[in-house]
Amino acid sequence: MRIDRINVYSAQLPVKNGVYRMASADVEALDSTLVEIVTDDGFVGWGETCPIGPVYQPHHALGARAAVAEIAPGLIGAEVASIRLLAKQMDERLNGHGYAKAAFDMAFLDLLGQKLGVPVSTLLGGALTDRVPAYYSLIVGPPDETARIAADKVTAGYPRLQVKIGGRNLEEDVAAVHKVWEAVGYKARIAVDGNRGLTVAAAIHLDRLCQAIPFVFEQPCNTMDEIATLKGRVTHPVYLDESTEDQNAVLRAISLGIADGFGFKVTRLGGLTKMTTVRDLCAIRSLPHSCDDAWGGDIIAAACIHLAATVEPRRMEGAWIAQEYIQGHFDAKHPVVISQGHIAVPQRPGLGVKPEPGMFGKPVAIY
Ligand code: 0XW
Ligand code: MG
How far is the CA of 118 from the centre of ligand 1 (A)? Predict the structure, then answer.
């Protein structure tokens, strides 16, 4: 199975119902990059990378496509058999840019899964479940409205909520956390996500003012170093998200003992194959984590779910997919869908989703 052609597409994904608001940025539309790899024996594999705008983390859509342009020509003619060899070939053409390589890694696994007749979860070590929990992300908004939506989402079956805070005064953030807790109580687990937006001082204040509420505090401050200073000064467990820029960052956080869990993003960590390493490191230390991406359509959603299915359920903090904020699906026949706050693991070979032919228009690049 050799790579014959690579088509690259750009898909515009407007945010359903307006704006997705976080401390670090407001986003209204996302530009997703898709790679379609066609092999000489007639298989087609898909990968996707979709930064949530240029500010959330040091990734952006044009950067992804520029990195794809460096990598793709070197893959033409390559045998799709060893993911390690293909990763080495990518590294020999471009240093870093894991978020672009992640799209290729997904497509290679999609191809191998189809060739071998197994779902990608099997290639990642094997599924432990056929249904994974999702979580709902409540954007920064008026506290009463946030609490109302929180209650609705728990009724809809979500076992976990993420309350976004930051970028406004402390009083509103504290009110949002209290009101969500009053609305849902123990019916859902709660993460409070600062998206890098709080100072260390504000994080300590929020921790004290919400002392009795059992939430995990996700990426409260900008850097891992700032977050490290919270150790022993806050009582809520602290999770890292944006700071997990690569595998080494995760190794560092675990070995320093400054993270009680993680919000992992498949593309930020360089792809599904690299994610299996941090998944296994977390298993060694009994650390919980999510399996998400920053955004994306059905290809990224499927990738997250295949990986999530391989995580020990007691440490699985849920898979966030963008479905609630996106109109429609890439694959209307086999979409990745949230039902009662959970997502069925695709069982078909490969990723199990195929975009409708022609739906992304003409490729923006062909190799
Ligand atoms: C909730 N998410 C997974 C979606 C947005 O990209 C932000 C992200 C997060 O947890 O920061
Ligand atoms: Mg987060």
Answer: 30
